[in-house]
């Protein structure tokens, strides 16, 4: 399982660039987490002084500095893990595996039971593999000391001429939530005491950082007081929050993630096309770059795009008539029973003769062929309904009326549900021809 | 009384070559192209909107054609006009071609504005970009250090665990479960006399309904786990000799292509 709360790669690059330019021999890192900063600095001849409060980070710190960790297993169900804690590297690999395995801790559903059992059955070989991976990843990392304790204490103690940098927790109690199962299983005798990181800790931290000549702070908030120190921004996507870098860096840096797109060269339905029951309606699976290309061509620009799990071009014979993007319903909608699946995108190509091509795309969204293709996309085995949302102030969406049922009205949007597998694609085309297929010419 | 700026525009228009004029047009007077090959990603469009909001005005003048009905069709600058609307800009300066044009001439002009464009010298581009010190202004430029390859390179060395070894066949199974599933298929296959297996809608429904029931009954949300539970039932039925060869398959006849049997006792798959 990838480490949660890691620093985006462009910001690690900024840290590397900064330290290369600082006249320092020592760098103090606060909240080392997965040691991403220390690993980024591996090529620079500086001594890193790391810090964190978590068992996982402290195990890496102990391995890199040769210190003792004092770790045992307190949950008897997991006593078998004791034999995988013999060396510091053993411990790092075991804790890495436990970040994944213990997701099933205390859960008694069939899925999680077989998940944990599989880990137990294969732990020996997985542990060997993880150990080799960890050894390689940490081989060049130069950590001179590790302090298991409060980040404020750690950075306050740094000499005045040392560089300091930190990516503190982004929300209160984040660490506790992340490692709660680990704490239930392991007995960490030298567990450090620390203060919960909150707004006042942040203010204190900013005070320490800004009093030094060489520092970096990474944070996902635009901090007004530090505007003058903003030196870098990493923008992952339109839907994700940027992460800002404040401090001392010779050149300001901006890194935006750009989506890869690819023109699939699909011909649009000609404006003089005549649609009849002899036409063949079909779904063509699209890869993500092709879907993004067509989405950007067809979808309104004021909609922030997302990436559905299953994406289709709706084709009439050899011509594109629309796009469908299907995913799982967001948590809130799922709880309110708005479909087993969720239609994240449905859009038709613009057409003069047939103004209601959108309904044909919707007819395809309810087809049995679409239902059948779900298992290929690794989605739920049995889906009977599909939900979607129309963003409108109006009481009814004309686009969905008559084919999807209105589920609920909310301020600024309407939720609709459709019956999945209602017809075959060809039956859907027949329905559309009878109800909406009148040519305006 | 004519406002000084309007007078300036009128005077400037008089000095422009014949067939060309400047206007300060209302955004709703502008008609966008019906067919536009130029595509803009949502991210780029949003960046354009942000810039226009920041400026509060359109600084790059769209080119329009005056139509016989008096409307202005945007030949070049369609995304700029859309972004201006999104940014809440009501009026903008436009350059208007008043000459008559054939459809071919209009399309040629439309395409040429997008096709005949220069390229950037990457070295000078970087040098210019690096003259900008403010990150916000860098964002305004539409470029960034990642695309200009200016970020320090880091050897990616992942510190992650080895994941469980799943074998995927539509559903995600654990290794032992695959062995079990294949062995079960082998047992069933011994009875299948045709090399071709075709599933009809009804078979598909039966399987998924069985899975759905099992998932609901045992509060399981994972399809592969539900498959394992079904295998338990099949094994139990096989062990008890309860799969009855005398009972015809429910899908036999009507061209049904899967020779199979069904269990009639406890653990029957619906």
From the spread of the alpha carbons, the general shape of chain B counts as: elongated
Q: Biggest β-sheet of chain A: count, sense, barrel? A: 8 strands, mixed
Number of strands of chain A: 17
Main interface: chain pair and counts:
A-B, 77 and 63 residues
* Percentage of β-strand residues of chain A: 15-25%
- What is the radius of gyration of chain B computed over CA atoms, rounded to a whole number of angstroms? 34 Å
Q: Radius of gyration of chain A, rounded?
A: 27 Å
Described by the principal axes of the CA atoms, the overall outline of chain A is elongated
| Category by helix and strand content of chain A | alpha/beta
Can you offer a commentary on this structure?
The complex is a heterodimer of chains A (441) and B (270). Chain A is α/β, with parallel strands linked by helices and 441 residues long. Helices cover 32% and strands 22% of the residues of chain A. Chain A has an 8-stranded mixed beta sheet, with helices on both faces. In chain A, strands 11-12-13-14-15-17-16 form a 7-stranded mixed beta sheet, sandwiched between helices. Chain A has a two-stranded antiparallel ribbon with strand order 3-6. Chain A starts with 8 loop residues before the first helix and ends in a 6-residue tail after the last helix. Chain B is an alpha/beta fold. Chain B has a 5-stranded mixed beta sheet. The longest helix of chain B has 17 residues. The N and C termini of chain B lie far apart (86 Å). The C terminus of chain B is likely disordered. Chains A and B meet through helix 1, helix 4, helix 5, strand 8 and strand 10 of A and helix 2, helix 3, helix 6, helix 7 and helix 8 of B.
Using brief descriptors, characterize the structure shown.
heterodimer; A: 441 residues; 7-stranded mixed sheet; 14 helices; elongated; B: 270 residues; alpha/beta; 5-stranded mixed sheet; two-stranded antiparallel sheet; 9 helices; 11% strand
């Amino acid at each position: 399982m990838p480490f949660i709360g890691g620093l985006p790669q462009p910001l690690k690059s900024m840290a590397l660039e900064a330290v290369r330019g600082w006249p320092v021999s020592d760098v103090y890192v606060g909240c080392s987490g997965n040691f991403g900063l220390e690993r980024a600095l591996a090529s620079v001849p500086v001594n890193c002084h790391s810090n964190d409060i978590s068992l996982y980070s402290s195990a890496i710190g102990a391995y890199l500095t040769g210190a003792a960790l004092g770790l045992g297993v307190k949950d008897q169900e997991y006593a078998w893990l004791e034999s995988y804690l013999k060396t510091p590297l053993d411990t790092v690999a075991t804790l890495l595996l436990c970040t994944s395995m213990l997701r099933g801790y205390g859960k008694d559903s069939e899925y999680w039971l077989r998940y944990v059992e599989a880990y137990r059955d294969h732990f020996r070989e997985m542990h060997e593999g993880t150990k080799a991976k960890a050894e390689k990843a940490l081989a060049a990392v130069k950590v001179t000391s590790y302090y298991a304790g409060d980040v404020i204490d750690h950075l306050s103690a740094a000499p005045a001429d040392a560089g300091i940098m930190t990516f503190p927790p982004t929300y209160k109690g984040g660490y506790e939530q992340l490692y709660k199962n680990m704490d239930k299983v392991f007995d960490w005798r030298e567990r450090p005491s620390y203060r919960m990181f909150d707004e006042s800790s942040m203010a204190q931290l900013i005070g320490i950082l800004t009093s030094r000549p060489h520092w970096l702070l990474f944070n996902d908030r635009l901090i007004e007081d530090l505007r003058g120190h903003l030196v870098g921004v990493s923008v992952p996507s339109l839907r994700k929050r940027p992460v800002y870098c404040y401090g001392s860096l010779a050149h300001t840096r901006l890194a935006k993630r750009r989506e890869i797109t690819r023109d699939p060269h699909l011909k649009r339905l000609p404006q003089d096309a005549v649609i009849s029951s002899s036409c063949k309606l079909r779904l063509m699976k699209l890869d993500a770059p092709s879907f993004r290309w067509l989405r950007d061509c067809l979808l309104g620009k004021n909609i922030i795009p997302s990436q559905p799990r299953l994406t289709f071009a709706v084709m009439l014979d050899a011509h594109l008539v629309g796009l469908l993007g299907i995913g799982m319903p967001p948590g809130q909608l799922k709880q309110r029973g708005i479909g087993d699946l969720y239609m994240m995108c449905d859009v038709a190509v613009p057409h003069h003769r047939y103004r209601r091509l959108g309904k044909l795309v919707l007819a395809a969204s309810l087809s049995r062929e679409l239902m059948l293709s779900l298992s290929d996309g690794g989605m739920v085995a049995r889906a009977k309904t599909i939900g979607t949302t129309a963003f409108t102030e109006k009481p009814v969406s004309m686009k969905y009326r008559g084919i999807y049922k209105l589920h609920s009205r909310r301020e600024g949007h309407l939720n609709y549900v459709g019956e999945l597998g209602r017809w075959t694609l060809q039956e859907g085309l027949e329905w559309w021809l009878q109800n909406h297929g009148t040519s305006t010419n | 009384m004519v406002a000084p700026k309007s007078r300036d525009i009128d005077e400037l228009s008089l000095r422009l070559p014949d067939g060309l004029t400047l206007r300060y047009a209302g955004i709703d007077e502008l008609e966008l192209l019906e067919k536009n090959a130029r595509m803009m990603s949502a991210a780029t469009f949003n960046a354009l909107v942000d810039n226009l909001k920041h400026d509060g005005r359109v600084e790059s003048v769209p080119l329009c054609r005056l139509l016989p009905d008096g409307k202005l069709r945007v030949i070049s600058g369609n995304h700029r006009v859309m972004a201006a609307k999104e940014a809440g800009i009501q009026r903008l300066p436009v350059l208007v071609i008043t000459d008559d044009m054939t459809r071919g001439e209009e399309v040629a002009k439309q395409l040429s504005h997008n096709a005949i464009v220069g390229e950037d010298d990457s070295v000078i581009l970087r040098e210019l970009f690096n003259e900008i010190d403010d990150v916000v202004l860098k964002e305004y430029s539409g470029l960034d250090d990642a695309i200009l390859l200016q970020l320090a390179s880091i050897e990616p060395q992942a510190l992650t665990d080895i994941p469980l070894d799943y074998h995927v066949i539509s559903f995600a199974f654990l290794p032992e479960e695959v062995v079990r599933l294949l062995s079960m298929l082998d047992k069933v296959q011994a009875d299948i006399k045709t090399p071709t297996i075709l599933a009809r809608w009804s078979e598909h429904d039966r399987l998924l309904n069985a899975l759905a029931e099992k998932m609901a009954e045992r509060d399981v949300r994972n399809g592969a786990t539900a498959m394992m539970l079904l295998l338990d039932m099949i094994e139990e039925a096989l062990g008890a000799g309860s799969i009855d060869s005398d009972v015809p398959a429910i899908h036999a006849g009507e061209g049904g292509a899967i020779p199979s049997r069904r269990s009639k006792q406890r653990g029957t798959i619906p």
